[in-house]
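A reminder from the course coordinator: this example appears on the midterm review sheet, so study it carefully.

Given structure:
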């Protein structure tokens, strides 16, 4: 299994992977609470970006309403925990199943009836908006007033119930990000990964070669939805509150996809690099504005837009492929 995961990764790439993992593992020992919180956000963004990357980067299906799976996953696990005392790791099963089923419905409606391109993107936005409006009136989970998880002071970390300090959440998110990276690497080197890439490049040609494009696009959306729901469970138990406007809004979907776009769509390192650049530079900008005592409404959104504009104009393939090419680390899809 390990050999398969590392297949095709050159020596320099392995060294970078090992070094990066060592730094991330050691980070909580040297970072203060603020830096650790920023790193958790980076890893969360990298994970959700990787999950979205399965849809767009691998299979070429543009989803602009991907926040729906974060919301469904978070609400499912949180509701089971609050109302029935079900541990989040057990609630995770229901969360993934519900999100995957939703993805399957969206995929079936789109792919069976030939809805693609921008129309598929609009369909995903519509479902996310339906979910936002629906949960705004769903009183069992707080409706628009918000759904809150009980918070208690623990003398020790309770990993089973995801109750503990930021260090515990950091390592949980790190494990999820590493797992997503490994899964995506294996998928890209497998038959399904090559089929996805064929569909992404030319769906008509892929179909003429005998590839069941409907089936493999369904695989992509169901897997991507399930992976994203896992992030929703983490979100719910880390922040201890959920608001429909907070988790289902289209702005959350846009934030999710900016990392892969800036880092490099269809690459493994792209979502991580994009998340690191966006979150790190955004936090640095906020600190600078605070130090200067400036209150600039919408500064974060403007910053994201400028980053996207610069990358699209200067590095249309993303930051990571350019860096990898300069350093001779990996191939174009790594």
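Designed residues:
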């Amino acid at each position: 299994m390990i050999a398969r995961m590392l297949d095709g990764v050159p020596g320099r790439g392995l060294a970078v992977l090992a070094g990066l993992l060592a730094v991330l593992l050691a980070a909580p020992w040297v970072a203060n609470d603020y830096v650790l919180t920023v790193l958790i956000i980076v890893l969360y963004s990298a994970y959700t970006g990787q999950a979205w990357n399965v849809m767009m980067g691998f299979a070429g299906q543009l989803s602009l309403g991907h926040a729906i799976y974060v919301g469904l996953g978070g609400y499912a696990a949180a509701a089971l925990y609050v109302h029935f005392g079900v541990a989040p790791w057990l609630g995770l099963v229901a969360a993934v199943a519900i999100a995957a089923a939703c993805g399957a419905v969206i995929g079936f409606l789109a792919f069976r009836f030939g809805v693609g391109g921008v129309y598929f993107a609009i369909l995903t936005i519509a479902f996310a908006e339906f979910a936002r409006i629906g949960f705004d009136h769903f009183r069992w989970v707080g409706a628009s007033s918000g759904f809150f998880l009980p918070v208690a002071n623990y003398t020790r970390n309770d990993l089973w119930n995801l109750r503990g300090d930021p260090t515990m959440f950091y390592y949980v998110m790190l494990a999820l990000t590493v797992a997503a990276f490994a899964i995506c690497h294996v998928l890209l080197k497998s038959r399904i990964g090559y089929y996805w890439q064929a569909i992404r490049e030319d769906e008509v040609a892929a179909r003429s070669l005998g590839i069941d494009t409907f089936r493999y696009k369904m695989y992509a959306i169901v897997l991507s939805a399930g992976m994203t729901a896992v992030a929703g469970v983490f979100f719910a138990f880390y922040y201890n509150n959920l608001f429909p406007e907070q988790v289902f809004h289209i702005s959350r979907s846009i934030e999710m996809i900016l990392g892969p776009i800036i880092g490099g769509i269809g690459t493994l390192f792209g979502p991580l690099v994009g998340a690191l650049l966006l979150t790190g530079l955004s936090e640095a900008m906020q600190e600078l504005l605070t130090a200067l005592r400036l209150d600039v409404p919408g500064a974060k959104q403007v910053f994201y837009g400028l980053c996207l504009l610069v990358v699209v104009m200067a590095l249309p393939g993303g930051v990571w492929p350019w860096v990898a090419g300069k350093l001779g680390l990996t191939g174009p899809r790594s």
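The first helix runs from residue 2 to 6. Residues 1-8 have pLDDT under 50 and may be disordered.
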